TrEMBL record:
Catalytic activity from the UniProt record: S-ubiquitinyl-[E2 ubiquitin-conjugating enzyme]-L-cysteine + [acceptor protein]-L-lysine = [E2 ubiquitin-conjugating enzyme]-L-cysteine + N(6)-ubiquitinyl-[acceptor protein]-L-lysine
MF-aspect GO terms: protein-folding chaperone binding; ubiquitin protein ligase activity
Leader sequence residues: none
Pfam families: CHIP_TPR_N, TPR_11, U-box
EC number(s) given by UniProt: 2.3.2.27
GO biological process, one term: protein polyubiquitination
UniProt xrefs under PANTHER family: E3 UBIQUITIN-PROTEIN LIGASE CHIP
Protein name: E3 ubiquitin-protein ligase CHIP
Keyword annotations from UniProtKB, A to Z: Repeat, TPR repeat, Transferase, Ubl conjugation pathway
SMART domains attached to this UniProt entry: TPR, Ubox
Length: 292
């Protein structure tokens, strides 16, 4: 009886969810959980409501419970990864999203493409945070280096000015001649240190430019969506595609290679591991390309 009542609350929760009344849906799923606390679906349904409400700590709690009941819960790992991304716990988020994707491919779930997007987004946000920290450190270091250069400049200028003041008792003509020489030395010092500052700034500017967006190599791009690949697979024709987009092609258009037009089914595909590794390395160094 309690199982039936729990299902009744789940159905009501689904109705509220379809109307975007997430608070009411959450209450119904909570009632279902109270009646049947071992049903993974109730936790993942409630977690989805919390995700919509941006209550990420609640999402994490429900997803962890779901995974403790069923370690192979695709939705549990998927939403846990999303919530952890929002909490900026990127390494753990990426780990759970990767698990979700692996399970999704194994179980042939329909939203594996969405999991890839969440994975790439988490990787990009991790890279952006690391870049932000790196830029801050570089900015502070540049400021420090420029400070050292200007301090050294001031020392050199003071030495020259002190030598100028030591000639205060000489005759006017000699003083004027010496003053001209002193000014030339001062100008030379300023010019030399200005050049050093310019060179330092150019080095840092070049470093910043080298990290900026560039053209992604064509062989990293899927030939169906033209997006960067995450899980490249090879067809019998020797052509590489993104797995999820090729599966979608099979489902909507037919079981053939989009370019060679030769017959091809999911069982004929095999992973392009070398390319996958190269893309992962590229994204680790160029996180901006994750949503290319």
């Amino acid at each position: 009886m309690s199982v039936e009542r729990a299902e009744s609350h789940k159905v009501k929760g689904n109705t509220y969810f379809s109307k975007k009344d997430y608070d009411s849906a959450t209450r119904e799923y909570s009632e279902a959980i109270n009646l049947n606390p071992r049903n993974v679906v109730y936790y993942t349904n409630r977690a989805l409501c919390y995700l919509r409400l941006k209550k990420y700590d609640n999402v994490i709690s429900d997803c962890k419970t779901a995974i403790s009941i069923d370690a192979n819960s695709v939705k549990g790992h998927y939403m846990l990864g999303q919530a952890l991304t929002e909490k900026a716990e990127f390494d753990l988020a990426i780990s759970h999203l990767q698990t979700a994707y692996d399970l999704a491919i194994k179980d042939k779930v329909t939203f594996s493409g969405e999991i890839i997007q969440a994975l790439l987004s988490a990787k990009k946000r991790k890279w952006e945070l690391e870049e932000q920290r790196l830029r801050k450190n570089e900015s502070e270091f540049l400021k420090y280096i420029k400070g050292l250069i200007n301090t050294e400049r001031e020392k050199q200028l003071q030495k020259v000015n002190q030598s100028k003041n030591s000639f205060g008792s000489t005759i006017s003509k000699l003083v004027n001649l010496h003053s001209t020489e002193i000014q030339d030395k001062l100008d030379q010092i300023n010019k030399s240190y200005d050049e050093k500052l310019s060179q330092i700034e150019q080095v840092f500017a070049q470093s910043e430019e080298n990290r900026g967006p560039k053209e992604v190599p064509d062989y990293f791009l899927d030939k169906i969506s033209f997006n960067i690949m995450y899980d490249p697979v090879i067809t019998p024709s020797g052509i590489t595609y993104e797995r999820t987009h090729l599966k979608e092609h099979f489902k909507k258009i037919g079981h053939f290679d989009p370019l060679s037009r030769l017959e091809c089914r999911e069982a004929d595909l095999y992973p392009n591991l070398a390319l996958k590794e190269a893309i992962e390395d590229y994204l680790n160094k160029n996180g901006w390309a994750a949503d290319y």
